[in-house]
Amino acid sequence: MREHGCRAMKISEKLLAVLCSATGILLLLFLWQLASETMSGLVIASPEDTFQAFGKILTRTDFLSSHFCISMQRIFFGVTLGAAAGFVLGILAGVSRPFRLMLEPFRWVLMSVPAVIVIMVSMLWFGMGSIMVVFITSVLLSPIIYVSTIEGMSSVDPDLLEMAAIYRFSLWIKIRDIYLMSIAAPLASGVAIVVGNGVRVVILSEVLGANEGIGYVLSSARTNLDIPDLYALVLLSLLIVGITDFFLLKPAQRRLMRWRVRSDD
Amino acid sequence: MIEFDRVTKKYKDLTVLDDVSFSISRGEVVGMSGQSGVGKSTILKLIAGILQPSSGRVRIQASRLGYVFQESRLISWKTALGNVTLPLRARGICPYEASATGRRLMDWLGLHGFEDTFPARLSGGMQQRVALARALAIKPDLLLMDEPFNGLDPHLKDNIFNLLEKKIEKDLTTVLYVSHYLEELSRLASRTIHFKGGKLT
Fold first, then answer.
1. Domain harbouring A101, CATH code
2. Is residue A198 part of a domain?
3. pLDDT of residue A2
4. How many domains does chain A have?
5. The predicted structure's pLDDT at residue A265
6. Is the pLDDT of residue B197 over 80?
7. Do A86 and A207 fall within a single domain?
């Protein structure tokens, strides 16, 4: 009976959360509609025009097979390479203090320099195209994962390491069962940030220096003053981040962190 | 089995153990008492090999060492059974055999049904029993216990002692058990050594 009551309470809490989110989305749409009615169509496209343009863009075969696919590949390779480099360097820096101190100026430069400068320099080095976009994305994202990994390494419980030494755990067991899982929590937040930033950086790089991709189409829409297309592409970028977050990152994070006692349990 | 020969342990200027000598024979169950900070845990860590003496010699003849800490020191992201079987897996025991041994021990300690539960969802007493199961899983020839059952209710403590007594007697395990409570020590130990000011008294 009590368990039944608890379950009913959890369901009602979830329902309330869904209602709150839905209200937020409706409010956003309402303000968007209001703004589009009061301002020129050359500044803000209405939600209706945007959704229509969104449908048209998605039915254009050249968009999906060419621009969309290329941007997704660039996001995938840029994020993967950046995350892998940040992770490996973070592990090494977590183990070796001199190595961390040596990398510190690089981290500081990459986290402080404006993205647009990295894009300009990369265009000079690699010209326009995928190599330049993937390079910029991985270079700008790797420090985020690097910092998350170091944070995780420093939060490894020394008591667990002492226990592991007493029971003579091998280095592999220590890495697999203690280090990697200690890193998992900060790393999961880092990955969520990196995916969102990955989409932003790829599109920005494509706007400034590519002949294909979502960013290139966005740049063309701006040049042609095709405002509904421009807003539709913004919507598409948001959907890429949202779908990755809700259907890939959040479930993975929940599975990885299922050992934690949640406050509603 | 354990021999301390004129062992001194210093942390910078602080002398924790001062010229300590004692020995424990195979199969002996020895209790260790003394006030907080007199070096009881240091002795256990010297035996476990995670500390080295500043001078003197510690000789140990044990191939399988079990250690129960004051706090459970379970890995939060591993299930109770995962924690119990990890020392076995570290020794190359196959997962099936490790799991069977772990389940048997958990059953024996009254933890049946909690094999797949994560430590955060277990009570303090249950966590300590999981930690004890982990220490016993490798069939230790030397078992070190550092005030492992502080804060447990007397009934549960009594049950655990009954089970431990049988296990120690059956496996001829050498045990060094630290506790503040003399009645606990006399219950389990055949003799007790007492520390004061870094020395044996």
1. 1.10.3720.10
2. yes
3. 56
4. 2
5. 44
6. no
7. yes
The fold of the B1-63+141-201 domain, in CATH, is Rossmann fold (3.40.50)
- Structural domain includes residue A141: yes
Within this chain, do residues A28 and A107 fall inside the same structural domain, yes or no? no
Task: Let me know whether A135 and A51 are in one domain.
Answer: yes
Q: Count of CB atoms within 10 A of residue A128's CB? A: 17
Q: How many CB atoms lie within 10 A of CB B64?
A: 16
Kindly report the average pLDDT of chain A as a whole number. 88
Q: Are residues A116 and A11 part of one domain?
A: no
Instruction: Look up the ipTM and state it.
Output: 0.90
List the single residue in B with minimal CA-CA distance to A185. Answer: B77
Nearest-Cα distance to chain A for B150, in Å, is 18
Q: How many CB pairs under 8 A join A and B?
A: 51
What tens digit of pLDDT does each residue of B65-121 get? 999 998 889 999 999 999 999 999 999 999 999 999 999 999 988 899 999 999 999
Domain encompassing residue A113: 45-256
The structural domains of chain B, with segments of one domain joined by +, span 1-63+141-201, 76-140
Indicate whether A215 and A111 sit together in one domain. yes
What single string gives the DSSP state of each residue in A235-257? HHHHHHHHHHIIIIIHHHHHHHT
Question: Chain B interface, mutation test: which of A162, A167, A257, most B Cβ atoms within 10 Å?
Answer: A167
Q: A189 is written with which tokens?
A: 């937040």
Which tokens hold the place of B81? 């059974």
Mutation target for A interface from B77, B91, B127, B139: give the one with most A CBs within 10 A.
B77
Backbone φ and ψ for A241, nearest 5 degrees, come out as -65, -45
C-alpha distance across the termini of chain A, in Å: 16
B2-45 residue pLDDT tens: 899 999 988 888 888 888 898 999 889 999 988 777 788 899 99
Tell me what pLDDT residue A262 has.
57
CB B29 within 8 A of CB B177: yes
Residues A67 and A89 in one domain: yes
Residue A65 included in any domain: yes
Q: Does residue A3 sit within a domain? A: yes
Sign for the pseudo-dihedral over CA of A137, A139, A144, A145: positive
Written as one string, the DSSP assignment of B13-55 is TEEEEEEEEEEE-TT-EEEEEE-TTSSHHHHHHHHHTSS--SE
Cβ–Cβ under 8 Å, residues A132 and A122: yes
Same-domain check for residues A63 and A184 = yes
For B183, the token pair is 């009645």
